[in-house]
Amino acid sequence: AAVLSGLEDPSADVRREAIAALCTHWDLMLVARGAEALGALLESEASSERIAGGAILARLNDRRHLRMLTPLLLDPDIAVQQAAAQHLSARVDESCGFLLDELLAALPQAHSRAQQPLVEALLAIGDSRVSEAILAHADALPLGLLQRCAIFLASQGEPTVDLLRSIAQDAGRSHPERILSVQSLALGGKQRRDFLSELARCELTEAYSTLRDGHQCLQLFVPQLPHALSPSEPEGDEQPPESAPPSILMRLDDASEILQLALADRRREALELVVEIVGFASRHPDFDTIRSYCFSPDPVARSYAIEALENVADRPVFELLLPFLTLDPKDELRMALGELGERLGLARKEDDVLARRLEDPHPWLRACALFAATKSVHSGAGAAALRCQQEADPILKETGAWAEQWLAARAAAGRR
User: Fold this and answer.
1) What is the DSSP string of 206-256?
2) Which helix (H) or strand (E) holds 91?
């Protein structure tokens, strides 16, 4: 009777304690009353009460009650999502495989604040089916949890190893996914070394190619086009056609700069991947600092990182990485055309950079290449615009739609 009266207490804390006591009572009639009151909390319009209901569920000894928490993972209130995910993370273990489908379904829809404890819950369950979901959400995870994920992924069997290799090689996947895949493979010991060494060489080749392409692109954007495509301030008294859309008058220098930045981003990602290949498996106690110092503007910090990597890295890979870590911007052109390219087996011949980058698997770099190709009226821009509109990546789709409209507007202006 005292417990039942607690359901009517003016204090919310007392009411919640009464519900928790009823839900664990030996009398089934009282359990039913507690379950009814708990259901009212979980369906309340007040987010604070839904959070309280989730906390009561987490206190119940029977893990089967944890399934009642999973709908809260998609609650419209972020705080409710986060609280439910934290309760699940604290309570689940290997015996909770019955929750796996619900957790995997909720993970991509949950807010980023709830995704971290959800990944922790998936790691606690420990089923190999969680590998792909963990990799897909690597960008939402802090450094410490990422390292735990790498250890978990490295402990899985051959199907997971195949998945890790596929992602590590695919420049179209997100950078955090590729980094986590490489870290997991690096923990696999000597049996993964040949694959990682070849991957490092491929990424260093790409880093070199972006450097070379950047210098070659400087020669592509010399205005040699109709006046509607020249800089927005015409020379002398000559005026652009009144019918020309304002976007057509954008400077070609802007397109060149955007492509240069995208190439630099791709080069940085490639080098970061190689640093992980070189250093992560060493379990160096200061590797987090080494990683951050590799690209520091401070030459002393870079020297420390280089010395530390030299002591743990495979020598052939380290020697190819070293020029990028010591690169002076003034020496870029010499490096882009010189000895490093020969050591990577790359010919010096020039090719159509824009045509090649219009097929690049990296979504952002490909979008920037399409922007530059459109502004310079490259012969492949029209077909590339149509292809990009069929891609899943939203930036590629939008850039493709813009390029098609821009080219159509230019063609219409030319007919007038």
Assistant:
1) HHHHHHHHHHHHTTT-S--S-GGGS-SS-STT----TTS-GGGGS-HHHHH
2) helix 78-91
Furthest C-alpha separation in the chain = 96
- What phi-psi label fits residue 236: left (phi over 0), alpha (psi between -120 and 50 degrees) or beta? left
The two structure tokens encoding residue 291: 């990683």
Residues in the chain: 416
| Residue 71: predicted pLDDT | 92
Going by the DSSP 8-state scheme, the letter that residue 377 receives in this structure is T
How far is 153 from 81, CA to CA, in rounded Å?
A: 26
What whole-number distance in Å separates Cα of residue 269 and Cα of residue 92?
36
Name the pTM for this structure: 0.81
What is residue 60's DSSP assignment? Answer: S
Is the distance from CB of 50 to CB of 75 less than 8 angstroms? yes
Query: What residue has token string 């928790």?
Result: 20
DSSP secondary structure letter of residue 330:
G
Residue whose C-alpha is closest to residue 98's, from 117, 70, 73, 131? 70
Cβ 128 vs Cβ 157: under 8 Å? yes
Pair 66, 91: CB distance under 8 Å: yes
DSSP 8-class letter at 25:
-
pLDDT tens for 311-340 read: 887 788 888 888 888 876 566 656 655 666
Say which residue the tokens 């664990």 belong to: 24
Residue 76, both tokens = 């419209």
**Would you place residue 233 in the very low, low, confident or very high pLDDT band (cuts 50, 70, 90)?**
very low
Q: Which residue has the tokens 């090689």?
A: 169
Question: What are the tokens at 58?
Answer: 């987490």
How much of the chain, in percent, has pLDDT values that exceed 90?
46
| Among candidate residues 367, 374, 370, the one with its CA nearest the CA of residue 394 | 367
| Distance, first Cα to last Cα, the chain | 90
Cβ-contact 367, 396 below 8 angstroms:
yes
- Could you tell me which residue, 234 or 203, shows the higher pLDDT? 203
Mean pLDDT on 251-274: 87
pLDDT at 53 over 90: no
The string of pLDDT tens digits covering residues 374-386 is 988 899 999 999 9
- 3-class secondary-structure state, position 188: coil
